[in-house]
Design a protein that fits this description.
The chain has about 425 residues and is an alpha/beta fold.
């Protein structure tokens, strides 16, 4: 009865969208529609969402050129998402559901609950890369309500635990001899960065003195001037500096100011933000030697390298290293589920197929933890490379992002930064 109700809901929604002129009859009747809520304007998220949209479109073109899914073509319905208000999230998601989407594929939403609550009643499969503990908490609070909502990657806390592991691996591998055992954390004030900071501090406490928190410095978005932060970094003189902030343009500004007054001998880790294309463009060489990480990024193995080559040919310029592959993999995961079920309108059956999927994409191996409806992280949650998505660490070398860890996926070894 549940399946019939949801299929009926979807057909009513499609009929309503036709009445409103939101979709043409051939598209609604013939194409399989992927709704893509993507920020195209606003102060944050635009670059990541464009990366995601590019990856989605690239996968759709390749799949359609190979005959589509179930003899039908795939189509992306893209709307400009207002991520910074609950009302904007709800309106965006509802418009895609009512417009006849067979699934939703989103890079991320800044405030997840409104988007999840908008999607849940329809039962529509919704895949995303939110990297959020809040998504997991919501799912665990009502697994039936949110059963068809899947976080492709893992919660943000693994950025913290994984960073400490990275430092220890750098020492044990002989690539780095730290000048002391201090870590200086510069933390933003949103939930995402606060959770990463706390996870880092908790993991440091478990090292039995091998590492210690040298200092914690707070920053507010937008950062007007990095000079006071850099003075604090110099006062602490920690071996490892963690800039726990994700906005690429602001991290580029940090890199430019830091280049004039660096902390000698310190590793500088910029949490995630350099993955966005504008970091290298705006830093203009000042990011050289800096390290950054992602729990969900494009590999440089044979599959990843081939994807990178195709992507750059289609979208010239600096390539984002996270959501490009994420959007691409999301479409392939949906296509695999639709092929298995044979009916894209059977939302619950498609959700079950996604829940049980095992898929190796350009961003690693996808399998969903039944307790969280989210991904598995290597080496944070599994010791086997092909059982999760690798927590990748990149270093800017010759103004390019190169993977330096984990060892199994490293392109190049760590190189001494210019300020050393």
């Amino acid at each position: 009865m549940v399946d019939i109700t949801r299929r009926t809901y979807a057909k009513i929604a499609i009929a309503a969208s036709l009445t409103l002129g939101l979709a043409t009859a051939p598209a609604a009747a013939e194409n399989i529609v992927i709704g893509v809520p993507a920020a195209q304007s606003g102060p944050v998220g635009v670059a990541d969402h464009q990366d995601w949209t590019n990856g989605v479109q690239m996968a759709i073109e390749e799949i359609n050129a190979d005959g589509g899914v179930l003899g039908r073509q795939l189509e992306a319905k893209i709307i400009d998402l207002d991520m910074l208000s609950p009302e904007g999230n709800v309106a965006g998601f509802q418009s895609l559901i009512e417009g006849g989407s067979h699934a939703l594929a989103s890079a991320f939403t800044i405030i997840p609950p409104p988007a999840m609550d908008a999607a849940a009643p329809s039962g529509i499969p919704y895949v995303h890369g939110n990297t959020s503990s809040l998504n997991v908490d919501l799912y665990q609070g009502d697994k039936e309500k949110y059963r068809n909502i899947f976080q492709l990657d893992v919660p943000e806390i693994y950025y913290g635990t994984g960073f400490v592991r990275f430092l220890q691996d750098m020492v044990s591998s002989g690539q780095w001899t730290p000048k002391n055992n201090k870590v200086h954390i510069v933390q933003g004030q949103i939930s995402y960065t606060q959770l990463i900071s706390q996870a880092t501090q908790d993991q440091i406490a478990k090292t039995n003195g091998a590492w210690e928190v040298g200092a914690v410095t707070d920053i507010q978005f937008p950062v007007q001037d990095w000079a006071p932060v850099i003075r604090a970094l110099q006062d602490t003189d920690a071996a490892a500096i963690m800039i726990d902030h994700w906005v690429a343009a602001e991290l580029a500004a940090f890199a430019q100011q830091y280049a004039f007054d660096p902390v000698p001998g310190s590793i500088v880790y910029l949490q995630y933000g350099p993955s966005q294309p504008e970091f290298l463009d705006l830093a203009q060489g000042a990011g050289e030697g800096m390290v950054w990480g992602t729990v969900y990024g494009v590999y440089a193995d044979e599959m990843g390298a081939a994807f990178r080559e195709r992507y750059r040919a289609k979208f010239p310029g600096t390539m984002g290293m996270v959501y490009t592959g994420g959007g691409y993999d999301a479409v392939h995961i949906l296509a695999k589920a639709w092929e298995e079920v044979g009916d894209p309108d059977n939302f619950d059956a498609v959700g079950d197929a996604i829940r049980n999927t095992e898929y190796r994409g350009v961003n690693g191996f996808y399998r969903f933890d039944p307790e969280t409806n989210s991904g598995i992280s290597y080496p944070n949650m599994t010791d086997t490379l092909e059982e999760g998505q690798a927590h990748l660490f990149f270093q800017v070398q010759n103004n390019e992002h190169r993977i330096i860890a984990p060892a199994a996926l490293a392109e190049v070894p760590f190189a001494a930064p210019p300020w050393w």
